[in-house]
Amino acid sequence: MFLLADNVWLDALLRMAIVALLVPVGVILLTWMERKVLGRLQQRLGPMRVGPFGLLQGFADAIKLLTKEDVRPDSADRPTFELAVFVIVVPVIMAAVAVPFTSDIFVSNMALGLFYFLAVSSLGIIGFVMAGWGSDNKYALLGGVRAGAQLISYEIPLILSAVAVAMLAQSLNLSTLVGLQDSTPFIAYQPLGFIIFMIAGLAELYRQPFDIPVAETEVVGGPSVEYSGIRWSMFQMGEFVSLVLISVVISLIFLGGWIWPFGADSATWLQVSLMSVKTMAFILFFMWMRATVPRLRIDQLMALCWQILLPFVFLQIIINGLVLVYDWPTWTLTILSGAAAIAMGTIIYRVARRSGVLYQTSGTADRVGSVL
């Protein structure tokens, strides 16, 4: 670990200041990138006019949002309405404290880093409910309630799939988890847990096909419908920061982080490059899903979580327990977890085929899909 300053407290403050500066710039660039990716997938150009390749479009949008009038409904619950955005954004920034990017680049190397990340990142649920309730708008309230129900439900398989990894590593320290994947990443032993974590992470980001809480065709924008200007932009910032954090955590606990496949002794620039490639791959995957998969109905969304993901994530934990207690060889984890992943995929495919969703095109992404 290298220090930015001799004083530990000053070093921590400097690291947090760097994070605070990188977050808005990163969100602006990710917004531009998503618009370009979606444009390509939908046979459009995306932003092109402002700056070279439209690179300055995000900065222009940020200036517009900063100078736009901040409107609040007269009948809104003012404290709840104004605090909701902070309850959404602050936990996301706090979660970034415990997530290392390389062996040297991090804010704090916590012994319970994985536990801290999962606990703090889930606090944003309260913010969505507060935004819906405080807006005094029936659509905002409906969006807030749906967001709360969805995020609470999918937190369970998300956390349990992370617990399954912690069982193998016998540690909640993210750096330790990465160090144990020097030769083989945990995705080889936990393919089922990886798939469930990906699906639950997509739901936690309320992106398609799990975007009911904010879908315009469902609830005209959801909890943020009454927000404007800088307050609305904070909802967007929370979403994009969560997108990056989820992508980084998946890279750390399933793909060996900055170690695999080059080993722990690789140079810092190689670690940064490796983490950047892995993280960007997951970010692009989540963006791809937004343009491809049709939206679920609320009953289908909840059924997918409670009737399919939850039983199978418990099965993954049972498999891990059997292998650890009876000291079975590690290759049995790959076989059993892989077989369970195939079984889960088969069930989802058959249900989707029976309901006709496989015959829908990407153009149905703005309509209510039929999956379960």
Question: Which tags fit this structure?
Answer:
single chain, 372 residues, mainly alpha, 2 domains, 13 helices, 66% helix, 0% strand, disordered C terminus
How would you describe this protein?
This protein has 2 domains: 1-67, no CATH class; 74-366, no CATH class. Helices cover 66% and strands 0% of the residues. Helix 8 crosses helix 13. It contains 13 helices and no strands. By secondary structure, the protein is mainly alpha-helical. It has helices spanning 8-41, 57-67, 78-96, 113-121, 124-134, 138-169, 174-179, 191-204, 216-219, 229-254, 268-292, 298-325, 331-355. The longest helix is centred in the N-terminal third of the chain and has 34 residues, at 8-41. It is globular.
Spell out the blueprint of helices and strands.
Layout: H1 8-41, H2 57-67, H3 78-96, H4 113-121, H5 124-134, H6 138-169, H7 174-179, H8 191-204, H9 216-219, H10 229-254, H11 268-292, H12 298-325, H13 331-355
Helix pairs in contact: 1-2, 1-10, 1-11, 2-10, 3-4, 3-5, 3-10, 5-6, 6-8, 6-12, 8-12, 8-13, 10-11, 12-13
Structural class by SSE content: mainly alpha
Globally, the shape reads: globular
Backbone CA Rg: 21 Å
Which stretches of 5+ consecutive residues score pLDDT under 50? 361-372
Query: How many structural domains?
Result: 2
| Distinct helical segment count | 13
For the sheet with most strands, the description reads:
none
Range of strand content: under 5%
Mean pLDDT: 84
Order of helix and strand elements from N to C terminus: HHHHHHHHHHHHH
How many distinct beta strands? 0
Gap between N and C termini = 48 Å
Helix-residue proportion: 55-70%
